[in-house]
Design a protein that fits this description.
The complex is a heterodimer of chains A (397) and B (63). Chain A is an alpha/beta fold and 397 residues long. Helices cover 23% and strands 31% of the residues of chain A. In chain A, the strands form 7 sheets. A 6-stranded mixed β-sheet of chain A has the order 3-2-1-7-20-19, with helices on one face. Chain B is of the alpha+beta class. Chain B starts with a strand and ends with a strand. The chains are: A alpha/beta (397), B alpha+beta (63). At the A-B interface, helix 1, helix 6, strand 23 and helix 7 of A face helix 1 and helix 2 of B.
Chain lengths: 397, 63
């Protein structure tokens, strides 16, 4: 393999190029990014960078010199098509990049809501530029309304409160972060947010967003009105695979890969766009939008590309995600839902310091902890090892 | 191989402890402890993975 092109210059793409060089790949290596910025870190965009605690130069993802990687860096170039047979990437300006190996790592983009009007002040949060827009509004004392109490919405609400701003969060479900933590634990986070001054409204439906050129208010079903200067739509993300339509790759809520992350001969995928059967969970098809997964898959995709067919290892992982809100470190690993049996094995949910584990098929399948990083990580290993639930209940001191 | 941790950046997410449990440990006091600052070559893959997946990029591997 003499040349490799990595499409997507965020965490997965960066870890891929770093790993390729570490493994001794000495050929031409191209890193293509749609944004004009060098790879940067996204988690601080809803926390330290948004709060003003950090300057923007602190969110760089790589502190070591780029020269060491000997890259052809194409920043500000959006990929628009891929020809799988010739492994040729077409960029928005019409130029093409052909390579022996391709890493697909174009990530995900925020979903929006159908029927939203076009008004200034309606924003999403995914990129550094998005963050600086929202930060500017916060610096001017804007009243913030957030639609969606997932991780991003909840983190932005916490950051807004740390700046002393009025913030209202509108959530259709009964508690914040339900998809990530379930209703019982979600209810404890609802209490945490309300105790810290967030106007959190759960079980509500947005009927209309109104304003004259600029967003002014959100009208809820039932008649309530929330006045705001900025409306953040934080209703999840969708994989950025539009440019791969017609490429010959199989797309199904992500790029469908085999267990080694191979999507086609010489083509691998990593990060938010990759869908693969995870051997740790019996080959369950997964697509993970978490930071740690992007880092792990970026490394694995590089290894896969350089491996001989048949000798390539599967990508097996226990998904892990964290969030920081109001001084509480939320961490979870594995798979679980509100339908699974849950046991609190340490601490107390309502004191926001606890570890809860979840059961599926007789095994410990998931862990969720608040401000208990050691125990969460020990459970992450037990999940990866397929430990029986009964054994897991008392396995971590 | 020598490991250094920037404790101004470390937020004790303990991801490193999962990647390389014989090298990193976050204890109940909430702090990260480096159990071996100069681990053997057999641990290189684990240590490199710990550095690459550290959410705060607090781990540096030299040599």
């Amino acid at each position: 393999m003499d040349s490799i092109a990595v499409v997507g210059a965020s965490l997965a793409g960066l870890r891929a190029v770093e790993t390729l060089r570490r493994l001794g790949f000495a050929g031409r290596l191209t890193l293509i990014g749609a944004e004009a910025h060098l790879p940067y870190d996204r988690p601080p965009l809803s926390k330290e960078l948004l709060s003003g605690e950090w300057d923007r130069d602190r969110v760089v993802l790589r502190r070591a010199p780029y020269d060491e990687l000997d890259l052809e860096l194409l920043l500000g170039f959006r990929a628009t098509a891929l020809d799988v047979a010739t492994r040729t990437v077409t960029l928005h300006d019409g130029r093409t990049v052909a390579a022996d190996g391709i890493v697909l790592a174009t990530g995900a983009a925020p979903r929006t809501l159908p029927g939203l009007p076009t008004l200034d002040g309606i924003v999403t949060l995914r990129t550094l530029d998005d963050c600086m827009v929202l930060r500017g509004a916060m610096e001017r004392g804007a009243r913030i309304c957030v639609i969606g109490a997932g991780f991003i919405g909840a983190e932005v609400a916490a950051t807004a409160r740390s700046r002393g701003l009025d913030v209202t969060v509108l959530e259709a479900l009964d508690a914040p972060m339900v998809r990530g933590v379930g209703t019982r634990i979600g209810a404890s986070f609802a209490a945490l947010h309300r105790a810290n001054g967030v106007d959190l409204r759960t079980g509500v439906r947005v009927e209309a967003v109104e304003g004259d050129g600029r967003v002014e208010r959100v009208r809820l079903a039932g008649g309530d009105v929330v006045a705001c200067d900025v409306l953040l739509v934080a209703v999840g993300a969708a994989p950025s695979t539009g440019w791969l339509e017609g490429s010959g790759l199989t797309l199904d809520d992500g790029v469908v890969c085999d267990e080694t992350l191979l999507a086609a001969p010489g083509v691998v995928a990593a990060g938010d766009i990759a869908r693969w059967p995870n051997p740790t969970f019996g080959g369950e098809s997964m697509r993970i939008e978490h930071w740690t997964n992007a880092a792990e898959q970026g490394m694995h995709a590089a290894t896969r590309l350089l491996a001989e067919d048949g000798a390539a290892p599967a990508f097996a992982t226990v998904p892990f995600v964290w969030s920081d809100q109001f001084g509480v470190k939320i961490q979870s690993a594995g798979r679980f839902s509100a339908a699974d049996r849950m046991e609190v094995v340490h601490g107390s949910i309502d004191e926001h310091r606890f570890v809860a584990i979840f059961e599926r098929h007789g095994r410990v399948s998931g862990v969720l902890g608040c401000s208990e990083p050691r125990r969460v990580m020990q459970y992450r290993r037990l999940i990866g090892a397929g430990t029986p639930f009964a054994e897991a209940l008392t396995a971590v001191e | 191989m020598r490991i250094s941790v920037n404790f101004d950046l470390c937020k004790s997410n303990a991801v490193c402890m999962d990647a390389a449990p014989t090298v990193f440990e976050v204890r109940d006091d909430g702090y990260l402890y480096v159990l071996q600052e100069e681990p053997g070559e057999e641990l290189r893959a684990e240590v490199e993975a710990a550095a690459a997946t550290c959410p705060t990029q607090a781990i540096t591997v030299e040599g």
